[in-house]
Amino acid sequence: MSELVPCPICGHSISTNAVRCPKCGDKSPHEKEAGVSLAKNYEKYRQYTIHYNWEAICKLNGVSYDTFGTEKEIRVFPKYLEEWEIVIALSSGIMKKTETSNYSDFFGNTWLVVLTNERFLFVDHAKLTSAVDTQSIRLDNVQAVSSSQGYSLGKIMVDLGSRIVYVDNCKKSSVEAMAILANQLLRDKSLQKNKQPGEKDESNKEPNGQDIVSQLDRLGDLYNKGLLTEEEFKSMKAKIIQKI
Predict the structure, then answer these.
(1) Sign of the dihedral defined by the CA atoms of residues 2, 147, 34, 112, in that order
(2) DSSP string covering the chain, please?
(3) pTM score > 0.70 for this model?
(4) Which of 42, 63, 118, 162 could disulfide-pair with 58, CB 3.0 to 4.6 Å?
(5) Mind listing the pLDDT tens digit for each residue in 43-71?
(6) Rounded percentage of the chain residues whose pLDDT exceeds 90
(7) What are the pLDDT digits (tens) for 124-135?
(8) Residue 21 pLDDT > 90, yes or no?
């Protein structure tokens, strides 16, 4: 029995039995998801998030880890993750200035785009000050996510129904992976909503005490290797301990 799912490229609804999207001609999601699988790699995403290993997440998605233009955002965004939130994909690109944008940024500037199991998190660290601007879109409010690829760069489009959020000038390979994974998350959440009463939901298990210990051990290793300042170490340690 077939079902309708969003095309990972253009967002058009297509049958799971379709080989290609009738609108953009792209391969069906099931054919493309073989390379980027949320279900297959979910536990890895969780472990890499616990250890702040963003490079490993990018590698898992077949995307090179590029922090050019987002070094500050990469450093601060873990502070804005919620308890038990899992990072699934990262990208970066240009977003238009909004009412809450940093006042010192007069033009469209580079934002870090983080896809988690719960939302899209957009982070911008001001160039001239220490101000941090964050925007958040819950996946429950997203209709579909699509991407487009140009000669060297790409674009991410998050359809909220009433409007579309555009992130332009993104790394070409990252937009495709993010769109596929986001639509997998949307489909999984839709299936969870339609579950019959009494069915078990094991998709959001909380980390146990051993995971907390692993986080602290990993954080200590990063500090001992000089990859974190003392202030960053204390801040992240306090955040982890709060989960106990």
Answers:
(1) negative
(2) ---EEE-TTT--EEETT-SB-TTT-PBPHHHHTTTS-HHHHHHHHHHHHHTT-HHHHHHHTT-----TT-HHHHHHGGGGPPTT--EEEEEEEEE---TTS-TT--S-EEEEEEEESSEEEEEEE-SSSS-EEEEEEEGGG--EEEEEE-SSEEEEEEE-SS-EEEEEEEEHHHHHHHHHHHHHHHHHHHHHHTPPTT----TTPPP-HHHHHHHHHHHHHHHHTTSS-HHHHHHHHHHHHTT-
(3) no
(4) 63
(5) 999 999 999 999 999 999 999 898 878 99
(6) 42
(7) 988 777 789 999
(8) no
- What CATH number does the domain containing 39 carry? 2.30.29.30
Please give the residue that has the higher pLDDT: either 6 or 182. Answer: 182
Regarding whether 87 and 54 lie in a shared domain, the answer is: yes
Instruction: Give how many domains the chain has, as a whole number.
Output: 3
Determine, yes or no, domain membership for 111. Answer: yes
Q: Are residues 3 and 56 in the same domain?
A: no
Query: 143 and 164, same structural domain?
Result: yes
Q: Is residue 72 part of a domain?
A: yes
Same domain flag for 173 and 111: yes
Q: What percent of the chain has pLDDT over 70?
A: 73
Residue range(s) defining the domain that contains residue 7: 1-32
Residues 112 and 216 in one domain: no
